[in-house]
Amino acid sequence: MLTRRAFLAATGAIAFAPASPLSAARYDLVIKGGRVLDPSRHVDRVADVAIEGGRIRAIQPNIASAGAAEVLDARGRIVTPGLIDLHVHVGADLPPATLLRDGVTSMVDGGSAGADNIDALVRVAQAAPNRVRIFLNVARTGVATPGELLNIEAADVDAARRALAQHREWIAGVKVRLSQNVAGDHDLEALRRARQVAGPLPVMLHVGQTYSPLPKILELLNPGDIVTHIYSPPPHSLLDAADHVLPEVRAARKRGVRFDVGNGRNGHVTWPVVDAATRDGFWPDTISSDITAPGRTFRVFDLPTVVSKFLMLGMPLDEAIACVTSHAAANVSAFNGLGTLRPGGPADVAVFELREGDFEFVDNVDAKRTGRGKLVASAVVVNGKRVKFSDSISSSAR
Ligand SMILES: [Zn+2]
Q1: How much distance in Å is there from the Cα of 89 to the middle of ligand 1?
Q2: For the chain, where are the E strands, in sequence order?
């Protein structure tokens, strides 16, 4: 039997000199001909993306791909940094890998677990093929017992601090849910305790239908803290009685507090609130899904669907993509360098079809609206590796 070298020598096919620096032979993957959209670098043009060794190596037109290990035809598609979902709930019933088919390469679990049950969630994060970080719920049980802060002693600062110290690599912040059905009349005390635990890390607070008015809550926040469910309906929404955005909300944004969508299923988004806020120019900093296992088939579906809602509402595509890439990455220090297609950086990439037609989108009370475009993921790359997702799985998920 001929060795590979002898075979090649016999056929004269290939010389053994190392490939020249510009040869495509060294690339693991070339994504050809897509509309490359990277808001972090103000890139929006048709180009190829070359990936090697887990990193983006080049973005330019006409990269020679003949010698690449794999070529992905992205003509007519949109090529973005891998999406970052800042608010999800993963676990045994919704493994992080499930979200890969939506183009989600990084995510933050928003308070599924507290000090008593964090270990299991850390194991989920460790086993995931995509990047998972956790906002530790200040309540000991997380959301496992809804109404987790009705007894304020569940917000055990010492227990939460111990959990954080033990899992410093995985816990990226602290989550606190403040709605009255979760925290009763002690929302402010729960938030104070969450802030105490977090120290320099961000607190993500779930607002909407709180006991206290939103301005009282915002007073307690540091720059970098994240308000999720910003378009929650009253009581105590971000709007005043005349349906204008409260000045305290704008002031909080000005001093560095971030405002996140957190679509979810109940009590978090209604069209009239979104309409009033965006009419006043108050668009989100980040778009997150608040996806759960039941949310896969009810009102949420997936992150690209939530982004498509904001396209319907009039957000430009590049701004909407920024909300799920570079803006989202800026909230988590472990995501430093993600949310961009910067050459030399980690190759997390998503490829989307922007389907045209009539698509129905719902808010949290099932009010229907029709949009003209819908983003659907068609390929995803994590750390330079293309993820294969079967068509059957991807179509049953949406
Ligand atoms: Zn949530």
Answers
A1: 6
A2: 29-38, 43-52, 55-60, 70-73, 78-81, 83-88, 104-110, 131-137, 171-177, 203-206, 226-228, 258-259, 349-362, 368-382, 385-387
Nearest-10 crossing angle of helices 157-166, 187-198 = 30
H/E stretch holding 6: helix 4-11
- The stretches of 185-262 forming alpha helices (DSSP H) are 187-198, 214-218, 247-254
Block means of pLDDT (10 residues each) for the chain, 398 residues, are 42 38 72 98 98 97 92 98 98 96 98 98 98 98 94 98 98 98 98 98 98 98 98 98 98 98 97 98 98 96 98 98 98 97 98 98 97 98 90 40
Kindly give the distance from the C-alpha atom of residue 109 to the centroid of ligand 1, in angstroms, as a whole number.
8
pTM reported for the whole predicted model: 0.92
Q: How far apart are CA 186 and CA 341, in angstroms?
A: 44
Distance CA 155, CA 176 (A): 9
Question: Tokens representing 93?
Answer: 């019933």
pLDDT of residue 22: 52
In angstroms, what is the span from residue 108 Cα to ligand 1's centroid?
10
Cα 91–chain centre separation: 16
C-alpha of residue 88 to centroid of ligand 1, in Å: 6
* Sequence-ordered list of residues with C-beta below 8 angstroms from that of 16, at least 6 positions apart, any chain: 5
Distances (CA, A) of 315 to 155, 275, 278, 279, 312: 38, 12, 9, 12, 7
How far is ligand 1, taken at its centre, from the CA of residue 145, in Å? Answer: 13
Rounded to the nearest angstrom, the distance between the alpha carbon of 85 and the centre of ligand 1 is 11
